[in-house]
Automatic annotation (TrEMBL):
The lineage of its organism: Eukaryota, Viridiplantae, Streptophyta, Embryophyta, Tracheophyta. It is an enzyme of class 4 (lyase). It comes from Eragrostis curvula. Its EC number is 4.2.1.93. Catalyzes the dehydration of the S-form of NAD(P)HX at the expense of ATP, which is converted to ADP. Together with NAD(P)HX epimerase, which catalyzes the epimerization of the S- and R-forms, the enzyme allows the repair of both epimers of NAD(P)HX, a damaged form of NAD(P)H that is a result of enzymatic or heat-dependent hydration. It catalyses: (6S)-NADHX + ATP = ADP + phosphate + NADH + H(+); (6S)-NADPHX + ATP = ADP + phosphate + NADPH + H(+). This is ATP-dependent (S)-NAD(P)H-hydrate dehydratase. ATP binds at residues 275-279, 294-303.
Amino acid sequence: MSRPAGAWRHHPQHRGHMWATSPAFRRQLVLLRTLLPPHPAAGSSSSASSSSSLRFRAMASSAVYEADAEAVIRRITPPLDRARHKGQAGKIAVIGGCREYTGAPYFAAISALKVGADLSHVFCTKDAATVIKSYSPELIVHPILEESYSVRDDERVSVSSKILTEVAKWMERFDCIVVGPGLGRDSFLLDCVGNIMKHARQANIPTVVDGDGLFLVTNNPGLVEGNPLAILTPNVYEYKRLVQKVLNCDINQEAASEQLTTLCQKIGGVTIMRKGKEDLISDGKTVTQVSMFGSPRRCGGQGDILAGSVAVFSSWAQQFVLANEQPTDKRVNPMTLGCIAGSLLLRKAASLAFQKNKRSTVTTDIIELLGKSLEDICPAEH
Ligand SMILES: NC(=O)C1=CN([C@@H]2O[C@H](COP(=O)(O)OP(=O)(O)OC[C@H]3O[C@@H](n4cnc5c(N)ncnc54)[C@H](O)[C@@H]3O)[C@@H](O)[C@H]2O)[C@@H](O)CC1
Ligand SMILES: Nc1ncnc2c1ncn2[C@@H]1O[C@H](COP(=O)(O)OP(=O)(O)OP(=O)(O)O)[C@@H](O)[C@H]1O
Ligand SMILES: [Mg+2]
């Protein structure tokens, strides 16, 4: 996603946003401070920023900050510049899709396009490929993954290495990959995907891990340990399993933010978005939340939309942070910004879809409203 340095700085949408600051984080998080309210330690009043959308609340001993997520979206979304060519707004790949699940990888991949990526690929099993292609001609679908039932024992090593070679050919082109939507839990397939994750890491490709990708990572945390380009997006059950495995304890709701911070630190370097009534986001240093109400419908697939959206926003945020030329130690974590932006956009689209469709709201209704939701926040220029 090469682009002229500073492209974002000249976006009219990005001018003049007065965000609150957080002195306690100033040294580390120059951009994120603009998303945060005054920190209590700085002597500001506890009714911090009551006049703005920025709030904080104490949970156990860790403060949780409500992000000004609209401002984040405006800030990181690149302008539609006529001089740009295909690919510069992002190339995303979803690793997922098997016999059982074809909806999830489709939802994630099409959402990436609807948010604004130029190209969206899906790497899935042969069974799933034709089905996914039939949902949309926009997606580039690679039928290369194999499940145990289709591979003889004596073929496993060669098939596994062929799969890795095939994905590796493409890997450098991607700005972000999403591992897990509709992947299934076949052991051979998960082994192959573990190798793909290792390769992505070596190639410094940001990786969103969701759905069955989290099943893989929970059983093998080493796949993401110490990787600052990894984002985990667990739902309530996936989070519980991760906490049990990594922290060896149960969920502590009273100290939710502290536990999330500890989990990030224990895994090391990763960003985790704990999905739920509020989406709680931490990279082990700060905890931010997005709590704008979306929709009371909990139809399956909303997490897939989120994963595809976070992939796009994170790659935009990475470029934004680089283009603003902050010293490395002062850069905000772009993965956090991507999570904040993806969370708000999904919630806005879900809210609009629910207004229209009420109880019959399904995931495709929400996807159709991603564009309007983004337009309301950050209009395209003409
Ligand atoms: N249309 C599709 O193809 C969809 C496929 N999906 C994929 O389906 C796969 C499995 O994801 P799921 O989120 O369904 O995962 P699970 O199969 O773990 O969970 C399914 C449901 O079972 C229940 N459950 C799970 N663990 C539980 C526990 N410990 N205690 C009580 N109830 C529990 C919950 O209601 C949960 O929502 C993933 O690959 C995911 O991406 C989902 O994204 C939904 C949409
Ligand atoms: N109780 C809730 N109230 C409001 N929003 C919620 C609630 N639970 C989840 N969400 C929203 O729905 C999004 C998807 O979360 P969810 O927990 O449904 O993911 P998931 O189970 O992984 O979804 P999927 O069916 O795609 O696998 C989250 O980003 C969150 O914003
Ligand atoms: Mg899910």
